[in-house]
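Journal club prep, shared notes

We agreed each person brings one worked example of a sequence with its structure written out as tokens. Mine is Cobyric acid synthase. I'm keeping it raw so we can talk through how to read the token line rather than staring at a rendered picture. Sequence first:
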Amino acid sequence: MAKAIMIQGTMSNAGKSLLAAGLCRIFRQDGYRVAPFKAQNMALNSYITKDGLEMGRAQVMQAECAGLAPDVRMNPILLKPTSDVGSQVIVNGEVIATMSARDYFKYKPELIPAVRSAYNSLAQENDIIVIEGAGSPAEINLKNDDCFVNMGMAKIASSPVLLVGDIDRGGVFAQLYGTTALLDDDERTMVKGLIINKFRGDKTILDPGVEMLEARCHIPVIGVTPYMQLDIEDEDSLSERFERKSAAALLDIAVIRLPRISNFTDFNPFQSIEGLSLRYVTNVRELKNPDMIILPGTKNTMGDLLWLRQNGLEAAILKAAAAGTPIIGICGGFQMLGTGLSDPFHTEEGGTARGLGLLPVKTTFSTAKTRTQTKGRIQKVGGILHSLSGLSFEGYEIHMGQSMPEPSGRSTGKPSFSAPLTEINRIGNETVFDGAQCGNVYGTYIHGIFDSDEITAAIIADLGAAKGIDTSGMKTTDYQTFKESQFDLLAEGLRESLDMKKVYEILEKGI
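Then the structure, token by token:
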């Protein structure tokens, strides 16, 4: 069985995911077979494996760091919030129900066998398992229900724990000391090291605080890790990407930050291109006059469509479309661009809703979820983005609605239908057509379509031509190669700031 080490945090977004990913990379570089594991992940960014199973993208990123294909065993339970009080519960990659928080806590103990089975199976195939916790292990209202999230999982895996605090938000000494103080005695003994994360400046000025923290907690501080400027996929709505203020650039792309935005990692490839600004906007004032607008995926298409309508962004998008600005909708964003949505089974809000009316398609939600990896080719494309024609891609689909073309014509007042956007080959299935295009409005269900540097380069060239500017200096790169370089930089930064000798001692000794 593999040896285990667990990363827990004093709060959400303390840096657990990146630290776990960095350790996966380091252990792999040092010659070990290593796999990530997170028993329960709550996130709207998800991925479809080759088996057609759904898992959180944070564990996908960690698997890539470990040199492994994503495996649903790495994240046996995924919670995808559908509202402020309920989540879709996905176990071993498949939806089992949508539950309120109260109902899920009652049901949670029944999932312990699934967690144990997934973990033990991975542990039999690897030398090291890097486990990631969720939130904080000291939340008083959640501790009694921690069957397998933080200390509950550490006990299942007999894993030592490294506790991480975020100094960038302030109060890191209180975070770490307070968290350890609120743990039960047997839990506190499992914490073998403390990490101060996201530090900027000369870390020697922390020495007095570190000494006092070690004296009070009786736990060594094994590292002060720096705030690293890396372009690595994030997993939740606290993502710093949303807050970035882009400098003036040759081209400007605006992504609508929907309340339940999902799979915003789709747009990461654009953020590595110098001269291109990718902004997440929440209101008309922020939208301004971008060169292209993207409507992203969402876990609640009908609810977020209502939000779009109420805050004025719908009118602003329609005005931009009328002026010829390219609009792209991905998954839920594609559904919004159609003429209407119908939810007869209350998969989301129930009832019907009017779409933006920019594409002549109508979406009907069902209880079955489409989950598949895909590859294919973009059809002949009209409008500004014509250079996309014939380009190939790989990606995945994950949606609970089907969008079908509607009869159109002048008498109906609907946009005229030109053609599907892509021809795709779903893994294990026949070739089908996907998406729609009409003028400069384009929609598709394919997540990951922008990972192709050929596609991003074509979009940049076409937007530049439409704007009358030279974009030849805006170089794209192979996104997979770029990600690998970022993973190596993460590992290098952690090797320099963590006491890796101590980490290996903790791993070897266990609890």
